[in-house]
Design brief:
With 113 residues, the chain is α/β, with parallel strands linked by helices. The chain has one domain: Macrophage Migration Inhibitory Factor. The chain has 2 helices and 4 strands. A 4-stranded mixed sheet has the order 2-1-3-4, covered by helices on one side. Helix 1 links the parallel strand 1 and strand 2.
Length: 113
């Protein structure tokens, strides 16, 4: 825990850019001091087909999923830090959004080898 899931318009990135985005978001999560580095899971998912508004505007959306228990101030600081990290990558996205989602601990299951 936590899971940082970044979806983006497939057309706006090359495979060379993706590791830098992963590293930037991962570093922003670590700098929040809310989680040990060994718990942070960051991944990107290209989206080939989508619609934003009435057209094909490009986007990046980061969903930050974590167990309940952080204050609103901590979540706000985390989302703003991740947003800044993504914007600093200078991808040609028309829209960049970040959302923090509290996971339901009662329904979360985990298995580790």
């Amino acid at each position: 825990m936590p899971h940082f899931i970044i979806e983006y318009s497939e057309m706006i990135a090359t495979e060379v850019q993706i590791p830098a985005l992963l590293d930037a978001v991962h570093a922003a999560a670590l700098s929040s001091e809310l989680f040990p580095e060994s718990h942070i899971k960051t991944r990107v998912i290209p989206v080939k087909f989508y619609r934003v508004g009435g057209g094909g505007h490009s986007f990046i959306h980061a969903q930050l999923r974590m167990k309940f228990g952080r204050s609103d101030a901590q979540k706000r600081a985390l989302s703003h830090s991740v947003l800044a990290a993504i914007k600093n990558q200078r991808w040609p996205a028309d829209v960049v959004t970040v959302e923090v989602v509290d996971m339901d601990v009662a329904s979360y299951a985990k298995y580790i080898l």
